[in-house]
Amino acid sequence: MSGTKSPHGGLTRRSFLKTTAAVAGATALAGGTTLTALAESYEPGQKETGEEQIFCGVCRGNCSGTCKLNLHVVDGKIVKTSKRKFNSFPDGSVDRICLRGLSQVYNIYGPNRVQYPMRRVGERGAGEWERISWDDAVSEIAERWQEIREKYGDQAIAYTRGSGNLGTVSGVASPMFNVFFNKINSTQIKIARDQANTRGINRVMGNLGDWVLNDPSDFKNAKTLFVWGANITDAQLHDWHFVAEAQESGTRLVVIDPIMTQLAAKADMWIPVKPATDAALALSMMYVMIEEDAVNKPFMKAHTCAPFLVREDTGEFLRMSDLGVEPKTIEVARTQVSQASSANKGAAVGQSATVTKTVDPPAALDSNGEVVAVDDASDPQLSGTYDFGGVRCRTAFDLLKDDVMDYSPEKASEICDVPAETITELAHIALDGPCIHRLGWGSNSYTNGVHAAHANATMAALTGQIGYSGAGTGVGDFKACWGINAVVKGMTAAKYPMISALFLPEIMRTGKYKGQDYPIKSLYIYAGNPVSNQVNTHEYLDDIVGNLDFLVVADYAFTDTTKYADIVLPASHWFEQEDVVAISATQCFIHSEKAIEPLYESKPDIEILRLFAEKMGHPDLITYTDDEYMKMVIDTASLGALGITYDAIKENEDMYWYPKKPWIPWENAEFRTDSGRMEFYVEKPTVQFDMGQDFDVEREHLPRYFNPTEAYEGSPAWDKYKLILLSERPRFRVHSMWADNAYLRELDPEPTIKINPHDAEARGISDGDYVEVYNDRGHCVAKAVFNNGIRPGCMVYPKSWQSYQHKAGCWSELLTSEYDPVGVNESYFDNLVEVRVWNEG
Question: Are 485 and 174 spatial neighbours (Cβ–Cβ below 8 Å)?
Fold first, then answer.
């Protein structure tokens, strides 16, 4: 295939059908019908016929829905998909299928499939390839990797992923990648997105997973549902019906978002907060609660760090050992609940065990003025001081009040552009529980995002509205299973530290990590498209790709990233392999059957790893069957106690992984901090990933408001750029997945940028003009769409178009790679831009 290019450009549904008429699956789907007609013709519970088989499949785009699908197979071809029932939910509450699920057949049979291994023959990025055999491809990869290891060291081979396959054996939850890459001592590069919320919440409550909130079926039990920066109707449309049902049951919906999203339009109350100021709003709501003496004092005394005494000299808790009481060593039984992605750390999770714990209780003032262990106090005081050998100690609550009292509604109104009386009203609503606060990806996407989540978690500590039906604060998108084994036979510990993708540009520029030589010369990318999805495209291409000697990408479709690979490997589609999905908004393990044989020369990821292991001199490394590995992962004592085994999952198709439902995290005020309480005062702040970066320890003790890096009036870039660039997660794509699906392009044909007419007219832009959005990092051309729901001073783009789909540039070119040193999270919204009518020259 020398000299040929990947199939992009000018593709239409009609031309696709014409060129693929011989493919039974695609032809059957087309049939002269429209996507709407297909949706109307699909009925749940369709029966197999003599000519048609129906398999159980799982849609795995990381919208988190993981919807079960019927995969209709005729003559070995998937001809359509339809909705399939969840056995764990007899009420049908999670039975669903969206347009993406309905159009899956195109992703399988469309012209964008990577069909066979290919070697680059032109310049990187030109998309020019020659076809090679699997043996040639794997042999070349093994030879190049061995040469690089011998010249630069084992760490010079790195691997990373996206979120394009949620499988347990051949997906992002799979330990198998660590089995192979740990064996050759490679460096793991971890994606750095959607983690600021997690960091802010978990440092207050402890780690119960990355994205934790009450099951959405519990929304209806809340008096008020607050949604902070999440457009659930589009981004997590599988959860929208839970919101609608809650409203029908009398739950008030309050949406806090700079943009009038579809969800905001449905809300009982829409709060158009200024971008990146959510923390200031939450702090001001706490001001009202404290000023009116309306906080939940019994809860604060019993279940939070509020009465802990804090030493002024160290900023740490005064502990009983400081007062001469010896710490105790005790044995505790504790089930470690962890995100499936924690498997990347190479440690077993989910196994109940007795562990040794040293207990050195924090000290508190009792009502009689004595200082005692907080749990021994008859009435621990929320306010007060204590002199410890000349060191002043104050309660954590008093320290919090010092900060919160700077944010009166009048002062906060100047920051977040919400009227003072509205802030007071929001505080009263939040006190009148039970309330659920669902945090989205909006405030998460600035360099102050950790503190926005920290502030929300602290507000839950003041109200006590957490851990029971209708009450909670957290991120309600993905939920990852607990109880699985992250270690399987053959796995060894990682020799080198996991490195954030945001550190990689500097490492590649300097060849150093934490001051030491650390060259990385090869990168293996699977189930991901970082060229499209990671911030600052030019930096990624120039500093990362440009400094690689060898780039290998495995994917089932051509993407912006495959275009730059030296070798591209064809990975199987989800429905061409058997697996168990263990990351799901349904909180279910779901068995996904193999419906058809892998198309063309594609192979499942685990089979690719087996080939690598053999060629790299480790033929006995990955020798068990896929079924045997899934048993190793799932068949644990903790899951077995609930009747969950791999064989049971296969038999039942889906199994709910919690003992009861709806799942309510933090029940009985059982938190996973060292003290077992909500620690809104962070005693010893740490960073998410350590590259030796400096951070302000004092700032990180408590929730604060501070400006983001760029997206605010008066920032260093403000003189040149006056518009904040925001993105939205559209219903037609999940990140860059489905970007090439021609059926969905009928409904969503080209990149657009939503702009307030006032901002557009001031720049001579008319509705429908092609415009160039630009800043110092790059540019992007899209069609301007006037929208009065866009806050003046902001623009919003539906994200994750591929670069070839733009007339010029791409959205990720514009995005900053600056990051909060504590959260180390991509700041997708922390950007200033300008816009002008596009001059095609």
Answer: no
